[in-house]
Design brief:
Layout (H helix, E strand, L loop, with lengths): L77 H4 L31 H9 L2 H4 L14 H9 L3 H14 L15 H16 L3 H8 L16 H4 L9 H13 L3 H24 L3 H24 L3 H12 L7 H17 L3 H13 L9 H13 L3 H14 L4 H13 L3 H14 L1 H4 L2 H14 L4 H14 L7 H5 L6
Length: 490
């Protein structure tokens, strides 16, 4: 994570899925497909992988990963960044007088499910080995939230946002009560809701997001508080907050609704871009162009869920790749992502064509890099050539040792090639070398599945994994029971 010099919490999610930020390319998706081993790889080009809304805990196929870009690399003034018009009654169907009145929906802190599982499965003595940061161990402010997020203590960070929002008069039981909004209070809400999405806490997310609607209330604009902001205009809420709320129905299995909301967000972003083009403000226009493109990535996610593949082609070819100011590396990233989408729908020939264009955009005479090797490895998987795919992913691992996506894919290849024990050894070695990084959800699901395939007595090995999780992982973004395929004890 980079130093957050401007104090915006959103930077602290830039490389984490799910993420809701203004990136051109994307970070790794959260493994949630729940598919059987015979399936081909699946993923999304967006940093928030929302192709499925349930996770069944079955073996995870090879993963796609996109390289994350820095959030909003173009620096612009606050006037440009916050430009958004207060909806008139006609535009909002009479809703422009409806105030945004949110509140926390749980009276107590989110519990620590790892602690609960350890207590149930291993006992109090083992729980004493759990040493993680809690709300009480950090400063009670935005800096404390950043500290918790950096440490991977996402539930504790949610709990701290609750305390800080309570100070703003927006705590438990305050939903429906008027409250003044500020950039800081809305940033706290955005951080809280993004964390709830990351943690799959969808019921709570839906309840707490509901009062915000699509952020069309007059009290989330500077114009509502002339005495406080001295004539400042535009949206108090950040663009990423608007994107999160537009994407929210995807999590709830309603991609059609998300598509409508995202399409509206894209239209507005494009209109703002054209506004700045008319003013001959090229930097501002480019800034909003990239925001519009970020919305298109989420629209592609919806199209994947809805199997609207022609829409994806139209967006990729007609809108994303048509921009003349794209760098070669940006074009390369997009063609690679496009190829991975073709792989997902089973079109190997189409994928190879897109990957070939991506390769041609690489620096002349440069050796294959991580993107090339992963693309090539995924093609080998799609052709059921698992020994070849393993060798390719092995080369990729030399370029990025400890990359859990590549390790996962190598283990999948070994399993498909009939080398069960080798796959187990690979995962165990990775965990022993770097438990903090390698105890990721997808790898845990895979290793637990391999233990079950190897022996009827797999529970002892799974409990050893639970001991490691207890000591090295502050949070998992899916339940321990699903990760380790353990039945909760009563």
């Amino acid at each position: 994570m980079t130093n957050n010099s401007n104090g915006r919490l959103s930077e602290y999610f830039a490389n984490d899925p799910p993420s809701f930020f203004d990136e051109l390319t994307t970070s790794k998706p959260k493994a949630k497909e729940g598919q059987q081993p015979a399936d081909k790889p699946s993923s999304s080009i967006s940093s928030s992988n929302m192709l499925a809304t349930t996770f069944t805990g079955t073996f995870q196929p090879p993963e796609y990963v996109e390289t994350a870009e820095a959030e909003e690399p173009i620096k612009v003034s606050d006037d440009v960044r916050n430009l958004w018009q207060v909806p008139t009654p006609n535009e909002a169907g009479g809703l422009s007088t409806h105030l945004v009145m949110p509140g926390i929906h749980i009276a107590n802190d989110l519990p620590d499910p790892i602690s609960i599982a350890v207590t149930q499965q291993l006992g109090e003595a083992e729980l004493q080995q759990r040493q993680i940061l809690g709300v009480e161990n950090v400063t009670q402010d935005e800096r404390g939230i950043r500290t918790l997020i950096n440490a991977g203590c996402f539930r504790a960070a949610v709990n701290l946002t609750g305390r800080l929002l309570t100070i703003y008069g927006q705590g438990y039981g305050r939903a429906g009560q008027p409250a003044k909004h500020s950039p800081h209070s809305l940033q706290l809400w955005f951080t809280r809701l993004a964390l709830l999405a990351k943690l799959d806490e969808y019921d709570l997310l839906q309840a707490e997001a509901e009062p915000f609607g699509q952020l069309n209330g007059p009290d989330v604009f500077y114009e509502f508080y002339p005495e406080m902001y001295n004539g400042k205009q535009g949206s108090i809420a950040c663009f990423s907050f608007r994107l999160l709320l537009a994407e929210l129905p995807i999590y709830l299995g309603k991609p059609h609704l998300a598509l409508d909301q995202l399409s509206e967000l894209h239209v507005i972003s494009n209109e703002i871009k054209q506004h700045y083009e008319g003013l001959k403000q090229a930097t501002a226009a480019e800034f909003w162009q990239r925001r519009a493109e970020r919305v298109l990535q989420s629209i592609i996610n919806c199209a994947l869920m809805m199997k609207k593949f022609s829409m994806i082609d139209d967006i990729m070819g007609g809108m994303l790749l048509s921009r003349s100011s794209l760098s070669k590396e940006e074009q390369r990233s997009l063609y690679s992502a496009w190829g991975r989408i073709y792989l997902q729908i089973g079109d190997i020939f189409g994928a190879e064509q897109k990957f070939a264009v991506s390769r041609r955009l690489r620096e002349i005479n440069s050796t294959p890099d991580l993107r090339d090797l992963v693309d090539k490895g995924l093609i080998a998987v799609a052709k059921n050539d698992f020994p070849e795919a393993y060798l390719i992913f092995q080369k990729a691992l030399h370029l990025d040792s400890g990359n859990t996506m590549i390790l996962n894919n190598m283990g999948v290849c070994l399993l498909y090639a009939g080398k069960l024990k080798d796959a187990i050894n690979l995962y165990e070695r990775a965990i022993n070398l770097n438990p903090q990084k390698s105890l990721n959800e997808s790898l845990l699901v895979n290793l637990s599945t391999l233990y079950e395939l190897e022996s009827n007595n797999s529970k002892a090995k799974k409990l050893n994994l639970l001991r490691l999780i207890n000591r090295f992982k502050p949070d998992l973004t899916i339940s321990v029971e699903i990760c380790l395929k353990l039945q909760a004890t009563n």
